[in-house]
Specification:
alpha+beta; 265 residues; four-stranded mixed β-sheet; single chain
């Protein structure tokens, strides 16, 4: 395999990163992944002028933002398509993508991480370093006195907004149920970027079996109770079904450290 494969800078736990990983895997695009740690902010700024992930390098050029990345993947790798061919349906799918990005994504993050920081900051660090080498947790733990405050500031997470954030998650679940078509999808007759976005942004919270980077810790009772409360919503079962039907296997290509050759995961 050529080293000119697309390269994804990602954080395993992040639901916005899961959105891009899913798109790459759905289109079966061989790619490499580089897991970045707590210092990603500086690397991302150097690469794109913005301190956000995911970043996908195509032909050596960085593309930031999950929506822009998927748009470029659609342009270069048209099939299987994530954008509906019908123009009206395409507009609606993109509108839903924006809605879930703006409302569901940030609210899911706050609904998970804020209670963890409040109840067990060390456990929160272990959750945030899910899928990373042990050194990532040890390095982050050195910053445990300042990192929670930085993380909340970075992502605009406020304790007084927790109930509103959880209400926004519930509203997004209601929106999924309202938009759902007889086909079982949000737009038209087939799986689209709207379905992928809604399901991917709920993945870290719901922990479906198909998730490639599952949590390796036991969450506190309060979060488990929150999950059980959500599980009664029909949109949660729909999300788990989207993972069963469409998450598929990873298209990541890794380097064999002993031989230097590339191999698919």
């Amino acid at each position: 395999m050529s080293m000119d494969l697309p390269l994804l800078w990602h954080i395993p736990l992040s639901h916005f990163n899961e959105k891009v990983r899913w798109a790459l895997d759905f289109k079966n695009i061989p790619h490499r992944r580089e897991c970045v740690g707590a210092d990603y902010l500086f690397k991302a700024w150097r690469a794109t002028g913005h301190g956000t992930l995911p970043i996908l390098f195509l032909d050596g050029q960085p593309i930031r933002d999950s929506t822009a990345i998927i748009a470029e993947l659609e342009r270069r790798y048209g099939e299987p398509a994530l954008y509906p061919k019908d123009e009206r349906q395409r507009r609606h799918a993109l509108e839903l993508e924006d809605y879930f990005d703006d409302k569901l994504g940030p609210s899911v993050r706050a609904a998970i991480i804020l209670p963890l920081f409040q109840e067990n900051p060390d456990l929160a660090l272990r959750v945030l370093t899910t899928g990373m080498p042990d050194a990532a947790y040890r390095n982050l733990r050195r910053l445990r006195r300042v990192f929670p405050a930085f993380y909340r500031f970075r992502h605009k997470i406020k304790a007084q907004r927790l109930q509103q954030d959880r209400a926004d998650v519930a509203n997004a679940l209601d929106r999924i149920s309202h938009e759902l078509k007889p086909s079982g999808y949000l737009v038209g007759e087939t799986f689209s970027v709207a379905d992928l976005t809604a399901a991917a942004l709920l993945g870290a919270l719901l922990q479906p079996p198909e998730l490639q980077y599952p949590l390796a810790v036991t969450l506190p009772d309060s979060l488990r109770q929150y999950w059980e409360d959500l599980a009664r919503h029909p949109a949660v079962q729909w999300t788990l079904e989207m993972y069963r039907r469409h998450r598929g296997s990873s298209a990541e290509v890794r380097r064999d450290k002993t031989t230097g050759s590339a191999k698919s995961v």
